[in-house]
Design brief:
Length: 338
Amino acid sequence: MLAARRLAVLVGALSAFALPAAEGASSPAGGVAELRERASTLAQRERAATLELYALESRLARTRAQVAELGAEREAAELRLQSLRIQLDAAWQTASVAERNLGARIRQLYESGGVDPIAVLLGAQSLDEAIGGLEGIRSVASGDARIAEEVRRARARLARAKREVAARAAALSAAEAAAAASASELESAVGERRSYLAQLAGERGLTTRRIARAQHTARAAATRAPDRPAATPMALETTSAPVVPDVTADGLRTLTVEATGYAIRGRTATGLPTAWGVVAVDPSVIPLGTRITVPGYGEGVAADTGSAVQGAKIDLWFPSVAQALAWGRRTVTITIHG
């Protein structure tokens, strides 16, 4: 109760002596409350946008795999179509050769005079010779007819297969084009979502700095107020200076943090299941969804939070307790990719 009364007196002092805020707040304390509410709203939007980004990236990966699969099927169909064209050309050549051979045999029969069955019978010296001559004519004619029929059937089968494979190749090409268009749209959506996340992160960083300035103004006003009870350390929630990553000569953003290993299974603050590469961060320092590189651990993504993860601290997920204990707690300089 005493602390509450002191806080009420301090708020009254700030209301009486503080200058109006640029945003039109009635007092620094009121401005801080509004800014904190704004920061909370931005954090919620970031989490929702991060989940949407993960879903879009998953759909994009599946669509790209579908494009690759359809492309492979289309190439196989085109190779099959090319093979059928070669076989059909060979069948036409075979038919041409068979027709030439048939014509040559017919000419030979006419030249030898053995094509007329009556002539065969009249010229035969015996019944056996006559029957044999007739059977020879019948055999030649039957063989030629069978060859011609087989060639026609082969050509018909090849032509039908060619039409079917051509239709299949055309359908696969259309499906591949549609999947590629979907992948392009998803890539654009992913880019827009990433830009939106960067915008939210910038707004939240600006809001955090405004909160720090408002609190500084409140403390300065309390210090200047004459004959007012001094504020206790708990009268206003103090905020340490924002942790800002360093920028190297080659443009990379780095940050020295305390990294702790953990192996708790479940779902993260963003709703994703824990897995290798999941990093718990302070969203005011490293926005959720940011990709980072941790020396000795590898690539990771800021996808979780924790009550003990404040400021320049991160938690790294390991699949076993032994691995987490082996990592322990280390001070490392991470690279922030944005």
